[in-house]
Amino acid sequence: MLCGYDNCQNEVRRERCNSCMRGIMILVGIIGGIIFAAAAVLLFINSLLTAAFTGVLIALITAIVFMFIILIGAFASSCGSKVRDCIRCNVAGLFIGILGTIAAGIIAVSTDLAAVSVLSAVLLGLTAFFFAYMLITVLFTVICVTDCRS
Question: Which residues have C-beta within 8 Å of that of residue 60, sequence separation ≥ 6?
Fold first, then answer.
């Protein structure tokens, strides 16, 4: 189990967790995901995005790799370490992005991605949204880990 907030007696760890910018991460992730998804769907509908299937596969593989990296980082680091504290702070956003990308990617891969299909555009948009959200939350977690203030 990850170190909980209740047994967080160290003031530095509490300060680090308060400075992880969880609210900003969620806001930037949602806005960035919407912009990225809208751009991907517009390119796909206008037949300018020709390798949509390959893009969905890349997003799916990236999400699976990030999931294993986050789990290994959480359980291999010692309790009270900066890596574990930052993962604990951002775990909800990380796994929403990762699991959303995996779920939307699997559904999108299992259907025929045709530019004339509304279902294909919706699935591609969902995959793009969760992929962008995942990348932004991973970026915020890396910024938290490498933060020089703590």
Answer: 101, 102, 105, 106, 109, 127
Q: Is residue 14 part of a domain?
A: no
Give residue 138's domain range.
19-145
Whether 89 and 22 have beta carbons less than 8 Å apart is answered as: yes
DSSP reduced 3-state for 144: helix
Total domain count for the chain? Answer: 1
Q: What is the pLDDT of residues 19-56, one digit of tens each?
A: 567 778 889 999 999 999 999 999 998 888 888 899 99
Average pLDDT over residues 9-18: 54
Residues in the chain: 150
Tokens of 45: 């509908």
Between CA 74 and CA 15, with CA 8 as vertex, the angle to 5 degrees is: 90
